[in-house]
Design a protein that fits this description.
With 236 residues, the protein is of the alpha+beta class. The chain is 28% helix and 26% strand. A 6-stranded mixed β-sheet has the order 2-1-6-3-4-5. Strands 8-7-12-9-10-11 form a 6-stranded mixed β-sheet, sandwiched between helices. A hairpin with a 2-residue loop joins strand 10 and strand 11. The radius of gyration is 18 Å and the shape is globular.
Length: 236
């Protein structure tokens, strides 16, 4: 990959605690641009068509795009993709905040989560160091409480996503909180809860490589200049 992508997809199986990194499919990256398209393609590949949304056969995919983690403005959203327990159909939640960029800084373009843990757990990603940790002490905690507790354990510089009691109880409209932002609607939190996945904590120290950094800098300057010269909305 010339730039924009890390070239790696992290795969975590909660059933057998198998963790490995696969290479990003370059053809997929070219043909399914961005986190939404790329995540949908991987979900199509990874999941049985008739999988029950709250079973261990359902797959959760968190996917970034090529601009995530760069200095290009308004391009830092990421996608959380699964099969919805509410609609029994494809679910794609677009989310903002720092989590997607931090995932890229850890050297991963996305995460594919499969299986079901036999006890409450959270995933810790510290660059290439990935582990599944017990989360029994986090059960029943609201998402913001769980995020604070995890940061006290692993470090304040980790970005944490978590579910609250609604997700644990498989409420079909439960969301996942990524800091102050959320992957809402469709029951994404219930899918996490069905897998006994309480949270994901990620920290990265890398940079996203650009194929032409000079051209990107010029584009950003031009964009900010145009935005600065825009007249405010009249009678808005």
């Amino acid at each position: 990959m010339n730039g924009g992508y890390c070239g790696n997809i992290l795969e975590v199986n909660l059933s057998n605690h198998r963790i490995h990194t696969r290479k990003l499919d370059e053809n997929y990256a070219k043909n399914y641009i961005g986190g939404r398209g790329l995540g949908a393609r991987y979900l199509f590949d990874e999941q049985p068509e008739q999988a029950d949304p709250l079973s261990d056969k359902n797959t959760i995919i968190t996917m970034t795009g090529p601009f995530t983690g760069t200095t290009i403005p308004t391009c830092h959203r990421f996608m959380v993709i699964t099969k919805s327990p509410l609609t029994k159909k494809y679910l794609c939640c677009s989310c903002g905040g720092h989590f997607g960029a931090e995932l890229k800084f850890s050297g991963h373009d996305g995460i594919i989560i499969k299986g079901r843990s036999d006890r409450p757990a959270y995933i810790k990603i510290d660059d290439e160091d990935v582990e599944i940790s017990a989360a029994d002490h986090l059960v029943g905690k609201y998402s913001d409480e769980a995020q604070t507790m995890i940061q006290e354990e692993v470090g304040r510089d980790f970005r944490v996503a978590s579910i609250g009691p609604a997700g644990e109880k498989l409420v079909k409209i439960a969301c996942v909180q990524f800091g102050a932002r959320s992957a809402s609607r469709g029951g994404m939190g219930a899918v996490w809860g069905s897998k006994n996945l309480k949270a994901i904590a990620v920290r990265g120290t890398k940079e996203v490589q650009l194929a032409n950094a000079d051209a990107v800098r010029e584009y950003i300057k031009k964009t900010y200049s145009e935005l600065a010269n825009k007249q405010p909305f009249q009678n808005y």
